[in-house]
Amino acid sequence: MTAPTGNDAFVEFERVQKSYDGETLVVKDLNLTMPKGEFLTMLGPSGSGKTTCLMMLAGFETATHGDIRLGGISINNIPPHKRGIGMVFQNYALFPHMTIAENLSFPLEVRKMGKSEREEKVRRVLDMVEMGAFGGRRPAQLSGGQQQRIALARALVFEPELVLMDEPLGALDKQLREKMQFEITHLAHRLGITVVYVTHDQTEALTMSDRVAVFNDGVIQQLAPPDVLYEEPSNSFVAQFIGENNTLEGEIKEIKNGIAVVQLDDGELIDCKPVNVSKPGERTRVSIRPERVEYNKDRLRAGVHTLHAEVLEFIYMGDIFRTRLRVAGNDEFIIKTRNAPDQTRLQPGQQIEIGWLPEDCRALDA
Amino acid sequence: MADTTQNGPVLAADGTPLKRSLSRALRMQKTRALMLVAPLLLFVLITFLLPIADMLFRSVENNIVSDTLPKTVVALREWDPASGEAPGEEVYAALAADLQVAEENKTHTRVGTRLNYENPGISSLFRKAGRRVSKWDIETDGPFKEQFLDMDKDWGKVEIWQTIQTYSPTMTNGYFLNSVDLMKGADGVEVRPENERIYITLFIRTFIMSLVITCACIVLGYPVAWLLANLPTRSANMLMILVLLPFWTSLLVRTSAWKVMLQQQGVINETLVWLGLVADDARLVMINNQFGTIVAMTHILLPFMILPMYSVMQTINPSYLRAAKSLGATNWTAFWRVYFPNSVPGIGAGSILVFILAIGYYITPELVGGTKGVFISNRIAFHISTSLNWGLAAALGTILLAVVLLLYWTYDKIVGIDNVKLG
Fold first, then answer.
1. Do domains A9-236 and A244-364 have the same CATH topology?
2. For B240-252, how does the pLDDT look when each residue is reduced to its tens digit (9 = 90+)?
3. How far is A93 from chain B (nearest CA, A)?
4. N or C: which end of chain A has fewer CB within 10 A?
């Protein structure tokens, strides 16, 4: 994904702030630019401001300060019904007193479209979500997954260029959720629509999006494609929030050749990649993914520092082994190894040496 | 698995049929449930269902004539009122015998009162006759026809005897005919003279005014219910207290307050005169008429409309409105096409409640209704407590009950009673 330039910016947030009570800011100085056709996910814990951002874009909340632009035009003063933005709600918000076909026809009716054209479009969109036979039913007669499809169809039927989705898969069970994740992404790419998707489920964010904006405390912590987000978190919040993560705390001893040597609180030394630390003496929180930890000495690069570890627990999970270690006084240090034929199974009580490639271990803010 | 391949009934583990086993297991639960509702069931039976049954029965019951004047009733069977002549001696003799027994039991005045409903004047005839007949010797003092006519020449009138004959059966539809301004004339059912017709007018007025009150409650209550359902909890609770406030004051006090407000020397008129909007000699008449009744009753019944509407509106997901707007609907379209249809069950429930309460309302129309603003229930109350014509009161009540049930049935057919929600 190339970074969007000012010219092809489709959705823009410029210095947007939002406060409900006039005392605290729910959204602090938000800047975000999206090109046309992008699938962007706003990810964050509840209360992080992601839904507020979505509601401001939809027009149900007004920004306290700043400018929101759609296709280059400021939409701050345009009421929601004139924005032409499709929206899928958390609980689907299908109108219970209308049939499925009437629900889908509603946005076309309020646009004063002719009857035959409406019927044609409704039929086409029903076919698109593979619900062609359900036009005459009421929402209550459909299962959760079917309602979800109809909600999606209703947001798409009037052919908006931008579709907002507010945790649309939250109420579905795991299997259906995974299936719908793929369906939504495929549909979005096929139709070429721009999607802003809000969720607190990081797996959903990683599998579906072109880019993910991680929100915390009203600020975007990192805005990056999923792989960058996972492998190169830019601060300790993102590292903690995305995927499983081991942290160790310590102080920078020296930085040279792009490798930082960190002295952990119990005195041991490790090698890391300095991310947002700059000089020796600084406190740092070191982040390392469980699957990047190596305990087989042969596979470690010569000369790197290793740490002593004691195996506390071995958990067999089928495709992987999950082993809990005590490392530098941290009892919650996890390593993950693939269940391969030559893989050793560690026993509780076993003493091992662990290490990693310095570039997999990131020295972040304390 | 084995059970499905067998052809007989499914058996429980001990070999008894599963159905019997299940019902035995459930019997205990059912008995307990029945015991829990038994006190209420008895209470409702004694204080509600039995009185209604009694009322329905009273509206057609007419034992009093045949019980008090058994011989006369038998003797009158032969008589044909179309002959235009008073009945013969044997009827008068029977009446004398009956009255003598009745006088001893003091029941002759009651039958007089009963017949007086149908033919005013009979009551005094019976009272006078009772006193006189008690002194006669039935065996020796005959013939009686002349003596009756001497006592009062009305005893020779065909209409008197016709009334007695018409009301001698133990069941009568007379009360019902009376309730709809009809009567039993010489040639069967006929319409009452114009100056005696009141009930049809009253019924119509009751329905129209109840309808107006219901509509006023909908119009006034809907925005309040909407506000209640959409305000933050704290302000909503405050507003809810204001809505319920009328329940905390006595009905009589509230109605009297309206008297103070609406009368010609009342608060509203004084203010209007002071403001110069109304001339002092042309003060508005707002009480002791239909306007007063409608205003006071709308105020009193408003909470019954607001509460069901509120509880239904609370269940309407606010995201429906947002969804409608995001789909391109203006505020009005979103309300009218999405919110309003979902709130109809609340309006239905509130309307049924208010309408049925209004139709049977009594105290408020009595106090502020004057003559033009009274309801059919005031007439029923009059017959129960003043004229003591319980049969007619029962017939009016039965008609009211039937009409309410009919409306309920129609509502079910048109809107569907499943669409009525109280929350």
1. no
2. 998 888 788 888 8
3. 5
4. N
Contact B319 A95 (CB under 8 A): no
**What residues of chain B have any CB closer than 8 angstroms to a CB in chain A?**
317, 319-320, 322-331, 333-334, 337-338, 341-342
Q: Per CATH, is A9-236 categorized as 3.40.920.10?
A: no
Task: Looking at the complex, report in whole angstroms how far the Cα of residue B199 sits from the nearest Cα belonging to chain A.
Answer: 43
Distance (Å, whole) CA A232 – CA A275: 9
- Exposed / middle / buried, residue A77 (Cβ in 10 Å: 0-12, 13-18, 19+): exposed
DSSP B339: I
Which comes out higher in pLDDT, residue B222 or A173? B222
Taking only the tens place, the pLDDT of each residue in B291-336 is 999 999 999 999 999 999 998 999 899 899 999 999 999 999 999 9
Least confident among A220-229, A231-240, B7-16, B387-396: B7-16
Question: Per the CB < 8 Å rule, is B317 touching A91?
Answer: yes
Q: Strand order of the sheet with strand A65-70?
A: A27-35, A9-18, A65-70, A73-74
Q: At what angle do helices B376-385 and B199-230 cross, to 10 degrees?
A: 120
Strand-pair partners of A352? A309
Provide residues of A within 8 Å CB-CB of chain B.
58-60, 79-87, 89-91, 93-97, 106-107, 110-111, 154-155, 158, 164
CB contact under 8 A, A93 and B320: yes
| Assembly ipTM | 0.82
**Do B328 and A154 make contact, defined as CB atoms within 8 angstroms?**
no
CATH for A244-364, options being 3.40.140.10, 2.40.50.100, 2.70.150.10, 3.40.50.150: 2.40.50.100
Task: Give the number of beta-carbon pairs within 8 Å between A and B.
Answer: 67
Which residue of B325, B338, B342 is in closest CB contact with A81? Answer: B325
Taking contacts as CB-CB distances below 8 angstroms, the residues of chain A near B342 are 95-97
Show the domains of chain B with their CATH numbers. Answer: 64-170 (no CATH), 199-419 (1.10.3720.10)
Q: Compute the distance between CA of residue B149 and CA of residue B162 in angstroms, rounded to an integer.
A: 16
Task: Give B-chain residues touching A79 at CB under 8 angstroms.
Answer: 325
HEC sequence for chain A: CCCCCCCCEEEEEEEEEECCCCCCCCEEEEEEEEECCCEEEEECCCCCCHHHHHHHHHCCCCCCEEEEEECCEECCCCCHHHCCCEEECCCCCCCCCCCHHHHHHHHHHCCCCCHHHHHHHHHHHHHHCCCHHHCCCCHHHCCHHHHHHHHHHHHHCCCCCEEEEECCCCCCCHHHHHHHHHHHHHHHHHHCCEEEEEECCHHHHHHHCCEEEEEECCEEEEEECHHHHHHCCCCHHHHHHCCCCEEEEEEEEEEECCEEEEEECCCCEEEEEECCCCCCCCEEEEEECHHHCECCHHHCCCCCCCEEEEEEEEEECCCEEEEEEEECCEEEEEEEEECCCCCCCCCCCCEEEEECCHHHEEEECC
CB contact under 8 A, A87 and B333: no
**Chain A closest CA to B256's CA: distance in Å?**
44
